[in-house]
Design brief:
Blueprint lengths: L2 H24 L5 E5 L4 E4 L13 E7 L5 E10 L5 E5 L6 E5 L8 E2 L6 E7 L8 E9 L10 E2 L5 E2 L63 E5 L8 E7 L5 E2 L8
Parallel strand pairs: 1-3
Antiparallel strand pairs: 2-9, 3-8, 4-7, 4-9, 5-6, 5-8, 10-11, 12-13, 13-14
InterPro entries: CUB_dom, LDL_receptor-like_sf, LDrepeatLR_classA_rpt, Peptidase_S1_PA, Peptidase_S1_PA_chymotrypsin, Sperma_CUB_dom_sf, Trypsin_dom, TRYPSIN_HIS
Pfam family, one: CUB
GO molecular function, one term: serine-type endopeptidase activity
Length: 257
């Protein structure tokens, strides 16, 4: 008596499964998707604007422009659930221009000097998905990341020439304070004592700090920020402590894996 209903239900499930399989097959990304940057255009993740992207994707995109030009990529929307990632490479994937995940638009990216190509790799796992990404590309012979009169930081921020070597980290990754030929100051033999007294908000009832507040500059002179020039958020990915003039102590997961 219930066989027709069971049959209809099974048929409906089969149709849904077939549709889902067709969607997945459509975006197995066996080929490299090519884009011509001689005209302005956009690149988006699979099914962007319709629904979340699929699990298990490994999609490659190549954006090319005419010889003698450079390409600029500007992110319009970015919602990529970690650890899913979008990696941006230079020509022939010889250089890494950045690896991005999360929910904030990455800063604009310009192809390397003398290169008219940008490569993208979008990889997803089998867990939670996101909305995906939408980026706009353009090209030209005089494309620059920063406006006229500004210099470029390694993390793609910009700063004014008169801010170079002024003792203030305008870039956020320290590159505006590099190669400044500042005289080396010989520190006293005593180690582990701050010249500048820090402000502490230690709570004896807690075994860890969450949130906190900015420290007084130079009050923790042995604190180290480990940074990667190919990542977002000023490049910081781990902390460490100076234990002598050549060695930094940090956690194992920061350098292994």
């Amino acid at each position: 008596m219930f066989e027709p209903k069971i049959f209809c239900f099974a048929a409906a499930l089969a149709l849904l499964a077939s549709a889902a399989t067709a969607d997945i097959d459509e975006y197995q990304c066996q080929d490299i998707y090519e884009y011509d940057a001689s005209v302005r255009g956009t690149v988006s993740s699979p099914f962007y604007g319709e629904r979340q992207y699929h699990d298990g994707l490994w999609c490659e995109y190549r954006i090319r422009s005419p010889e003698g030009t450079r390409i600029k990529v500007t992110f319009k929307d970015f919602d990529v659930e970690p650890p899913d990632v979008l990696v941006v490479y230079g020509k022939d994937k010889k250089t890494d221009l950045g690896s991005f995940t999360g929910f904030e638009n990455p800063k604009p990216i310009v192809s390397n000097e003398g290169e008219n190509e940008i490569r993208l790799l979008f990889g997803t796992d089998s867990m939670i998905a996101g909305r995906g990404f939408l980026l706009e590309y353009e090209s030209g012979p005089n494309i620059q990341l920063c406006d006229s009169g500004y210099l470029e930081c390694a993390n793609r921020n910009c700063y004014k020439p008169d801010q170079k070597c002024n003792g203030v980290d305008e870039c956020g990754d320290g590159t505006d304070e590099e190669n400044c030929n500042i005289p080396v100051i010989i520190e006293p033999e005593e180690c582990g004592v701050q010249d500048i007294t820090p402000k502490t908000i230690y709570d004896p009832s807690s075994d860890r700090m969450v949130g906190g507040e900015p420290a007084i500059p130079n009050s923790w002179p042995w604190q180290v920020s480990l940074q990667s020039r190919g990542s977002q958020f000023n490049g910081h990915f781990c902390g460490g402590s100076l234990i002598n003039n050549q060695w930094v102590l940090t956690a194992t997961h920061c350098v292994v894996g």
